[in-house]
């Protein structure tokens, strides 16, 4: 009797040990990789500070965390590429997708600009997972493209679009970008939408079309874009016909989870980078919060599906954002609650006022208020008056030196706003500051520590059993 009990206990223990080993050995079935383009530590901090502020009341603590800052595992990534310590999105996204360094501007190829690197997305597809690539900028832009394309220049958008159609991936959602698929807009007149349909894609070019797609359909969605159709509008400029990232991720989960083997979903908050280039702090904050909401959708999904891995990182920092300047120990992100429009809208208004010969001081002061600069001081008015004069500057180099290549009026608006908030952007371009990575879920602990961006891909391959080799 006693002996029998001993044997039963032994068998139970063996079974438990096997189950435990199996559980430890399991690969995540659902993988989310969120990339905040240009998103460094300061960007994550300013958005979290605003979350802890109220209009008119500065944050005094950080009791409320961004979802991305509350993930259990914390790491840091170096982001240099083969060209520079200050890299671009093509090379850094290639590193995240392939585990290789390459030159700035190059996607999915080694430094010789010819040898293809294999991508984590390609390997996971081979293993049976569905692949979804999502961005709030056009889907052929560098970061999303690095997960499906191999090309020597990130600017060859029409060719990247052709590579997209010929990939066997399952879902592509971007903002704008119609010009690279529409036969009436493409230089070679090719109808990539028609081609996409013959390859089994359902094509959506509006919010309603996208939301009405059926589960299990292959998807190409170019959602209505901003003024230049290069991206979704900034979140603060969006209207009813626009989708936010959380809605896109939510619908994409429905579409991809028809596959019982799981999915790999890359989600880029690309316009964070554009706001940082333009030093538009208010737009950057609101777009950061948009990405964070989408991460919330992934976290809710993980609650129901424990075999999920969520990774959040940036491809590089952009703008060299400093939170406080001069001798003053303060930063006031709460001021940005009053910003109602982005620099893109300001530029449109200035352009139209200019064309109508109505670019008067009063009209621009009014525009400044609409932007969020309430109660202009005399010194601020003088700075704005000078910027109006500079709108007529024909010398491009001079505009570059004085305003980073951006339009004078909107740049001065942003500078005045940033000065009020006591923060400073050191650059209109990327920087060499490392980025923060956070992760949660199955295998997340492997991403901890100070690692290179190429290691993010190598670890991801090991954790997901993707089978990549270097
Ligand atoms: Zn950039």
Characterization of the model:
The protein is an alpha/beta fold and 470 residues long. The chain folds into 2 domains: 28-322 and 429-464, Alkaline Phosphatase, subunit A (3-Layer(aba) Sandwich), CATH 3.40.720; 333-421, no CATH class. The protein contains 17 helices and 14 strands. The strands form 3 sheets. A 10-stranded mixed sheet has the order 5-6-4-3-7-1-8-13-2-14, with helices on both faces. The chain has a two-stranded antiparallel sheet with strand order 9-12. The protein has a two-stranded antiparallel sheet with strand order 10-11. Strand 5, helix 8 (207-211) and strand 6 (218-223) form a beta-alpha-beta unit. Helix 3 packs parallel to helix 17 and helix 9 runs parallel beside helix 11. The mean pLDDT is 94. Zinc ion (ZN) binds next to helix 10.
Number of strands: 14
Uncertain segments: none
| Secondary-structure class | alpha/beta
**Any idea what the shape is?**
globular
Radius of gyration (Å)? 24 Å
Distance between the termini: 57 Å
SSE inventory with pairings:
Elements: H1 2-25, E1 30-36, H2 41-51, E2 73-78, H3 89-98, H4 120-126, E3 130-135, H5 142-145, H6 157-166, E4 171-175, H7 192-198, E5 201-204, H8 207-211, E6 218-223, H9 245-256, E7 263-269, H10 271-277, H11 281-304, E8 308-314, E9 317-318, E10 321-322, H12 343-355, H13 361-371, H14 378-390, H15 396-403, H16 408-421, E11 424-425, E12 430-431, E13 435-441, E14 449-452, H17 453-464
Parallel strand pairs: 1-7, 1-8, 2-14, 3-4, 3-7, 4-6, 5-6
Antiparallel strand pairs: 2-13, 8-13, 9-12, 10-11
Bound molecules: zinc ion.
């Amino acid at each position: 009797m006693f002996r029998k009990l001993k044997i039963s206990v032994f068998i139970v223990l063996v079974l438990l040990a096997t189950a435990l080993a199996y559980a430890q050995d399991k690969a995540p079935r659902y993988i989310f990789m969120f990339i905040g383009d240009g998103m460094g530590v300061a960007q994550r901090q300013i958005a979290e500070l605003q979350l802890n502020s109220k209009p008119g009341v500065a944050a005094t603590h950080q009791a409320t965390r961004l979802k991305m800052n509350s993930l259990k595992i914390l790491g840091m990534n170096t982001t240099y590429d083969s060209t520079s310590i200050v890299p671009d999105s093509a090379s850094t996204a290639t590193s995240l997708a392939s585990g290789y360094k390459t030159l700035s501007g190059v996607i999915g190829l080694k430094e010789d600009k010819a040898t293809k690197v294999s991508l984590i997305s390609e390997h996971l597809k081979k293993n049976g997972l569905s692949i979804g690539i999502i961005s709030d900028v056009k889907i052929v832009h560098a970061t999303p493209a690095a997960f499906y394309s191999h090309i020597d220049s990130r600017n060859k958008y029409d060719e990247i679009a052709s590579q997209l159609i010929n990939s066997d991936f399952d879902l592509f959602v971007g903002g704008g970008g119609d010009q690279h698929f529409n036969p009436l807009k493409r230089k070679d007149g090719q109808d990539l939408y028609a081609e996409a349909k013959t390859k089994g894609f359902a094509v959506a070019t509006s919010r309603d079309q996208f939301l009405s797609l059926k589960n299990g359909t292959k998807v190409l969605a170019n959602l209505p874009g901003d003024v230049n159709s290069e991206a979704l509008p900034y979140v603060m400029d969006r209207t009813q016909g626009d989708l936010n990232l959380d809605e896109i991720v939510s619908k994409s989960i429905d579409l991809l989870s028809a596959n019982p083997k799981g999915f790999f979903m890359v989600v880029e908050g690309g316009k964070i980078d554009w706001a940082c280039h333009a030093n538009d702090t208010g737009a950057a904050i609101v777009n950061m919060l948009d990405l964070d909401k989408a991460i919330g959708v992934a976290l809710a999904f993980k609650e129901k599906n424990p075999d999920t891995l969520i990774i959040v990182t940036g491809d590089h920092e952009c703008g060299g954002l400093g939170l406080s300047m001069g001798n003053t120990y303060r930063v006031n992100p709460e001021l940005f609650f009053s910003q109602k429009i982005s620099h893109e809208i300001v530029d449109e208004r200035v352009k139209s006022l200019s064309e109508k010969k109505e670019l008067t001081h009063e009209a621009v002061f009014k525009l400044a208020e609409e932007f969020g600069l309430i109660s202009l001081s005399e010194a601020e008015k003088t700075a704005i008056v000078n910027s109006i004069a500079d709108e007529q500057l024909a010398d491009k180099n001079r505009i570059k030196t004085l305003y980073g290549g951006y339009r004078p009026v909107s740049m001065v608006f942003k500078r005045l706003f940033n000065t009020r908030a006591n923060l400073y952007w050191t650059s209109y371009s990327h920087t060499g500051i490392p980025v923060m990575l956070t992760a949660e879920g199955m295998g997340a602990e492997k991403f901890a520590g100070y690692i290179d961006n190429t290691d993010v891909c190598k670890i991801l391959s090991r954790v997901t059993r993707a089978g990549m080799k270097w």
